[in-house]
Amino acid sequence: MRSKRSGRIAACTAVALAAGMLLAGPASADTAPKAAAELQRPTANERAGGVLPTGAPTSGAAKQQKQTLQRSADGTAGVATAGAIAKPRFDVNGDGSDDILYRGFSGRSYLKTSGPNDTPDAEYGVEKARSEEDFKDVIPAGDLDGNGQPELLQLSIDGTLTVVEASVTGTSYPKWSDDGWRIYNKLIGAGDLTGDGKPDLLARTYGGDLYLYPGNGQTSTVPFGARIAVGGGWDMFDKILGGTDFDADGTPDLLATTPDGDMFFYHGNGNGTFAGRVKNGYGWTMYNQLLPLTDNDGTVWVLARELSGQTWLYRGKGNGQLGDRVKWGANWQYTSLFAGQGGIPAHGKSEAMARTSGGTLYGYWGQANGNFQDREQIGESGGFPTSFPLILTSSLDRTSAGDLLYIYQGGLYKGDTLIGGGWGSFSAVLGVGDLNGDGYGDLIGRDASNVLWFYPGQGDGIHFSSRVRVGGGWGIYNKLIGAGDVTGDGRADLVARGTDGTLWVYSGTGSTSRPLNDRVKIGTGGWNGFNKLAAVGDITGDGRADIVGVDSSGTAYRYSATGRQGTSTFNGRGVIGGGWNTYKELF
């Protein structure tokens, strides 16, 4: 959802969307629906609670709560071993402990420093390689150049990796940038895995291959050496935690969790490789994000956020296992991104729009707790007549928010800008996110002959490359939706509802010539019970896209993606609330 109208673009930027469609130059749509001049997110206190531990749990920590999920596979107790202290990856105030950088849904970043500090977290300035971009991920890399200050790696949607240096008040301007990183769905600041004193980077491909990029002590030039293959099969994990020494031998290790909630420990061998995995827990599906931390005496922690926004701390035992959890800070439901979080971050959309039969449009901003903030009216009452089809896409540019498009007199518009003509014959138009792997959001359209067409986006929200025929026979579906990654692999997907109420997913391939894989059944009937069905992006904070359905009573339900396959793709439904029959349509 965009906060401002697009404005007119010079006619020389006209583009032909596809053969047989009208050449479209920008044009005024003065008699079309009128978007609000300004739309602001509802205000919220995005600063989260909790005082980071230094040396030992804070005196105000709540009583430890016994949990079965932290026990090792054989139930044995852990005994810490002596060893050198591995350095924290993100110590900006120089006290020897990790600090936390996090971004709220407003786009503002905040810094929580370690130590006995109960003042509100300071807003933190993060310099970007592109000012208009909401970077997809930010990775604490450690002190790459050995000057005493840690670096951050910013990953853009098109796979550009940028190095900035972090201080207490903010970051430096970009020191180095390079592209080519979009072949990976996860980057991990791994600490010094090779024993040469320089922090390293791990990168996982979509196919599950893991690579090590050894640090070389540079930041103004390429900071890593040539990649080294570590192993395959890492696509089985939905969260990977690195850069922290969980067995107290001075070398960082890895913790990784599966979509089923099992946790595994990988011992770092000190030469860039890892020992075989050891199961050290289960039940971790109760958390939507995990974050590793190190304090100033080498004690390691795992911060875990549950759906409500409450967080917990798990203290490492020094043998690859974790102890019982301690209740920590609240109010983390407004955090859209932790620097160094374990899961794949979402990018593109976390909101919904709803239109009344009278043509009044409302926006709902998503939170990380599976629900929405209070609605906000968009534009004038009755300003969006139902005779105009509306499309709320996943982001079509570099910002992480949906784009509102509409069809007027056969033309497809974004704000006042005409994208192209000939769209009046389409029975469905949607923007699911990036299907072909270039980082930019794309469009899909189903024409009057039930042929599906793919329109690769060019990253500016209004220009698209020549369309590609996906295939025919798409009339068997009465609803097509999509706004992000449903399957958990980091690629956008298309969800389709059959006329018999069966739900299917077509996962994204990363290819322009064949953007969708074959369909997989993810729901066995009953989905026709929803008279409104929409993909709202990630509103549960785990990086995966969720679906909202409204039944005949007006009750809205959330179906959260799990990262598992087939009919286990979504969790059982959660109630969002009633009164949604006020609306004629949900986007």
Q: What's the tally of helices?
A: 0
- Average residue pLDDT: 88
List the strand order in the largest sheet. 3-2-1-20
Low-confidence stretches are 1-30, 56-83
Which structural class do you get from the secondary structure elements? mainly beta
Overview of the molecule:
Helices cover 0% and strands 34% of the residues. β5 and β6 (161-165) form a beta hairpin. By secondary structure, it is an all-beta fold. Residues 1-30 and 56-83 have low confidence and may be disordered. It has strands at 100-104, 109-112, 122-124, 137-142, 151-155, 161-165, 176-178, 184-191, 200-205, 210-213, 228-231, 239-244, 253-257, 263-266, 278-281, 287-294, 300-306, 311-316, 322-327, 335-338, 351-355, 361-365, 376-378, 390-393, 403-408, 411-414, 417-420, 428-433, 442-446, 452-455, 468-471, 477-481, 493-498, 503-507, 520-523, 530-537, 546-551, 556-559, 574-577, 585-586. The protein is globular. The strands form 10 sheets. A 4-stranded antiparallel β-sheet has the order 3-2-1-20, with no helix packed on it. A 4-stranded antiparallel β-sheet has the order 4-5-6-7, with no helix packed on it. Strands 8-9-10-11 form a 4-stranded antiparallel β-sheet, with no helix packed on it. The relative contact order is 0.13.
